[in-house]
Write a structure and sequence with these properties.
The complex is a heterodimer of chains A (317) and B (238).
Chain A (H helix, E strand, L loop, with lengths): L15 E10 L2 E11 L2 E6 L6 H8 L7 E6 L2 E2 L10 E4 L11 H11 L5 H11 L15 H13 L5 E5 L7 H16 L3 E6 L2 H7 L2 E6 L2 E6 L1 H7 L5 E7 L2 H9 L4 E7 L2 E6 L2 H14 L4 E6 L4 H9 L4
Chain B lengths: L2 H12 L3 H23 L3 H27 L2 H6 L3 H4 L5 H32 L5 H26 L3 H19 L1 H4 L3 H12 L11 H24 L8
Helix pairs in contact in B: 1-6, 2-3, 2-6, 3-6, 3-7, 3-8, 6-7, 6-11, 7-8, 7-10, 7-11, 10-11
Classes of the chains: A alpha/beta (317), B mainly alpha (238).
């Protein structure tokens, strides 16, 4: 696999802002009063199918007018502004590529449509970036789904945009291609580009995104680092698995404090429901020390993205 | 006019199955003209009837539909248009470029074969070949713009176009004299009539109406298509 350096991003950061954006189709509300800011780095737009991710991404890409509210890039309104595409690269989910063009012709056409000073050089660089130079002279209609996806990414990157929007970018890719694109996305995010990708695959988001925006039923359900989101869910007790030198003694010491909702003794150690995350994490070492117990392992069991996501999409019983 | 958009559109139109229709229809016209010449000998009356009913009345609107909608509607339908729309190019420029492609294809596949077919029958006699070729050329420009607009406005552009060409121009225009004024086909005949001196042919719509009508319809269709493309909403599969 070739390794290609991502060109340095433009000095000005891409700040995409949605202010009270709604979008409805007749009586159906697809996106409901969403306000969010997407800045430099990799942001994952997460949500189950039908949550409004794609609608939101199309509003950000200027392909859908908000029914209400505004979508802007660096203060400039996106809808009906073709100049905005100097700064945006878009990888749509739809298969729509000109199958009769070769990969080279497709990416070169993107470079020429952007009126780049050296379109051929830009197209070569973009194809190298997605590891597609070897197949550039084949017609796109002969490509696999993953290859089509990569050539679309190359066309979106050809003008070195500040902002890259990707709609379900890893769909149809084999594991090797997926890892390669994940690495590329991470690298570009680290170099200061604003990258937003939608996905309903938790693992993809967890591996690539530093920030997540969660959509549930058209609403913006949560925003931030998923561990932080989990900690803000104060109505859901945190579950910890604790192993120590004397689990029984530690259990009785913990139950005496109000920050522990329930403590159960299992074969593999203690399971503690912490009602107050901050207080519990401060209290545990102190209680263990006072009780003369050594802590071997303290691990949160529901602080992974999957648990956070299921808490967000499922109403409390 | 954008050369990259034009290049992609020409490739899409000429490199696929659509070219078969673009070629077969004018070939049929030339073949019929050749056959008539062989079996009936040259006749100005026959030439005028063939041009009116087949060249201008059937082949031109069908080719107009294939070229006018074909340059944009399939791209909107399958989402490939996103490749063009997500670039810093004004959308009216994209519309205009696609119109130029459609109009040039109609000149090549409708106007030139119309001239060849008429020439086969009567050469340049009474200006029939020149008249109908010019009529096909200018009406082709109007068809290109109108059907391109349909391609932007509706996902059922071909159905609406067929209804317009067959029902409005063919049927209503045949029985209701007032409706003929609003028929591109009739405007083509007015131009042909103006150029030709044939005694076998008299158009219903005055040239003073037909030419401004072609200009107004073409410009208006392009302006509306450009504006509609600016506000075109495309969504994902969600």
């Amino acid at each position: 696999m070739t390794v290609t350096t991502v060109p340095a991003v433009a000095a000005r950061p891409g700040l995409m802002e949605l202010a009270r954006v709604s979008r409805w189709y007749g009586n159906v509300v697809a996106v409901n009063d969403v306000t969010m800011t997407i800045g430099p780095g990799v942001t994952g737009l997460l949500g189950p199918n039908g949550a409004g991710k794609s609608t939101l991404l199309h509003i950000m890409a200027g392909f859908l007018a908000p029914s209400n509210g505004t979508a802007t890039l660096n203060g400039q309104r996106i809808w009906r502004s073709h100049d905005i595409y100097r700064h945006i690269g878009l990888v749509p989910e739809r298969e729509g590529v000109y199958g009769f063009l070769t990969g080279w012709q497709f990416v070169l056409s993107a470079a020429r449509l952007h009126r780049l000073p050296d379109p051929a050089q830009a197209a070569t660089r973009a194809l190298d970036l997605v590891d597609m130079s070897h197949a550039k002279d084949r017609r796109i209609e002969t490509y696999s789904k993953g290859m089509r996806q990569r050539v679309k990414v190359a066309a979106a990157l050809v003008h070195d945009p500040q902002v890259l929007l990707l709609d379900e970018p890893f769909n149809g890719m084999d594991p090797r291609q997926r890892l390669h694109l994940m690495e590329l996305v991470r690298r570009m995010g680290a170099e200061g580009r604003t990258i937003l990708f939608s996905s309903h695959i938790l693992e993809e988001v967890e591996r690539v995104a530093e920030q997540i925006e969660v959509m549930v039923a058209g609403r913006h359900a949560a925003s931030g680092d998923y561990r932080e989101i989990r900690r803000r869910m104060t109505d859901r007790p945190h579950l910890f698995r604790v192993r120590s030198s004397d689990d029984r003694r530690l259990a009785s010491a913990l139950i005496a404090d109000a920050s522990s909702g329930a403590v159960s003794l299992t074969e593999s150690g203690l399971e503690v429901q912490a009602l107050d995350f901050g207080r519990f994490t401060r209290l545990l070492p102190r209680v263990a020390r006072d009780a003369g117990v050594r802590l071997w392992q303290v691990s949160p069991t529901d602080e992974d993205l999957e648990s956070v996501f299921s808490y967000l999409i499922q109403p409390r019983a | 006019m954008n050369t990259v958009v034009a290049d992609i559109t020409y490739r899409a139109m000429l490199g696929r199955k659509r070219i078969l229709l673009l070629v077969l229809l004018p070939l049929a016209l030339i073949a019929v003209a050749g056959l008539l010449r062989l079996i009936g000998g040259p006749s100005e009356g026959t030439a005028v009837t063939l041009m009116k009913t087949f060249a201008i009345g059937t082949i031109l609107p069908l080719l107009g539909l294939i070229a006018g909608t074909g340059v944009i509607a399939p791209e909107i339908e399958d989402g490939t248009i996103m490749h063009l729309l997500s670039k810093p190019i004004s959308r009216p420029v994209i519309t205009f470029t696609k119109f130029v492609v459609a109009a040039s294809l109609l000149a090549l596949f409708a106007a030139v074969p119309t001239f060849i077919a008429a020439y086969l029958l009567v050469q340049t006699e009474s200006g029939v070949a020149y008249g109908f070729a010019l009529g096909a050329l200018l009406a082709g420009v109007a068809y290109a713009a109108v059907f391109l607009l349909l391609g932007v406005l509706t996902r059922h552009a071909v159905t609406v176009g067929v209804i317009y060409a067959l029902v409005w121009e063919g049927l209503v225009g045949g029985y209701v004299p007032g409706a003929r004024k609003f028929s591109i086909q009739q405007w083509a005949q007015s131009i042909a009539d103006q150029v030709s001196t044939s005694a076998f042919f008299k158009s219903d719509v005055p040239i003073g109406f037909a030419v401004p009508a072609i200009v107004i319809v073409t410009v208006a269709a392009l302006l509306i298509a450009g504006q509609r493309l600016r506000g075109l909403s495309l969504t994902g599969d969600e």
